[in-house]
Amino acid sequence: MEYFEKTYHPPGTAPGTLISHDQAKAGVARIHLIDYTSDHFEEKLLEVPAQCHPYLESNTVTWIHLQGAVHADTIRNIGNVFELHPLAMEDVLNSGQRPKIEAYEDLLFVIMAMPLVIIDKIAIQQVSLFLGSNFVISFHEGEDDPFELLRQRMRKPGNRIQQQGADFLLYCILDLIIDHGFPLLEKYGEEIQDVEDTLLAAAGKPSTLNEIHRVRRELMLLRRSLWPQREVISGLLHGESKLIQAGSFIYLRDCYDHTIQIMDLIENYRDMASSMIDVYLSSVSYRLNEIMRVLTVIATIFMPLSFLASLYGMNFTHPTSPWAMPELHWYYGYPLILGGMILAVVGMLVYFRRRHWL
How far apart are CA 339 and CA 345, in angstroms? Predict the structure, then answer.
């Protein structure tokens, strides 16, 4: 996982200043519009934000989604059409914001963090949402559109979304963003299981410790990014905004429950990763103790052998001295000493085995 990088204005910049941080990518956003009522559905791609005017003035629910990097001029034009607050538009451009909810006079501004798997790597991308009385505006700067599944649901005749207002559409978008965490955590669950199997099969390998630290670090980053989303849903539930109808509260409570489940899974996986580090260190210590025990046994076995070899290696002899070593002149002295050494080794091994030291 890449660290969640935040873009920001230079210090001293006036609040609400709109600056495109990546001019190479900015300006390529696609504007996708869906306009509907209970018996009407229209979907099209827009070229410029000004084309939203007729839909804003009609008695319909309008969803405008901008996919890709947004140029400052584009979001400024969107803001002029829908009367968005400059501080909120600034937060859209400054990606990497903490998930939050801001209530304005006739508008709700929500920032969410969407975890995605991109080419076997975990990325957390910002999704910015505006809720008005009859419209929802969403921004996602990634290359792939994560809301196509939601559009497929809306294209089916008689779907529930068309029967509800803009607040229910906001719930559907929030629910989709939050539920992206479940397949991601399922992937981490499989990785943790694989690491556990590797830890038991090949304890003490540095690569195993590196894998544990990687999983633990990525879970910490996920926790930091996804934890505030619970506060966002709680703010929608306990807020007094007239934009959220009473009928949507039950769905938002379900969304809140999903955030609780995701955080519980993250906490459990973090605890498992931390415990695996303890298991790894214990296995390394056990392996070191096993090595030291074997080396100690070998050293202990060679102690009497070294004594005998050094004793008979002194070669002190004299034909008449009573203190000379008579064994030096034995005919079978050499094989007797070797046999004694072998018996000493066998005897020590039998003794170690009976004491369960081997």
Answer: 10
| CA 107/CA 109 separation, integer angstroms | 7
pLDDT in tens, 85-113: 888 888 888 877 889 999 888 899 999 98
Say if residues 255 and 170 touch (Cβ distance below 8 Å): no
CATH superfamily of 289-354: Magnesium transport protein CorA, transmembrane region (1.20.58.340)
CATH (residue range 30-283): 3.30.460.20
Asked if 34 and 43 count as a contact pair (C-beta separation under 8 A), the reply is: yes
Residue 97: DSSP 8-state: P
- In the three-class reduction of DSSP (H, G, I as helix; E, B as strand; rest coil), residue 160 is classed as coil
Nearest alpha carbon to residue 230 among 255, 265, 266: 255
Amino acid letter for position 58:
S
- pTM (2 d.p.): 0.74
User: What does the block give as tokens for 358?
Assistant: 């081997």
Specify the 3-state DSSP secondary structure of 168.
helix
**Quick one: which of 81, 83, 88, 82 has its CA closest to 102?**
88
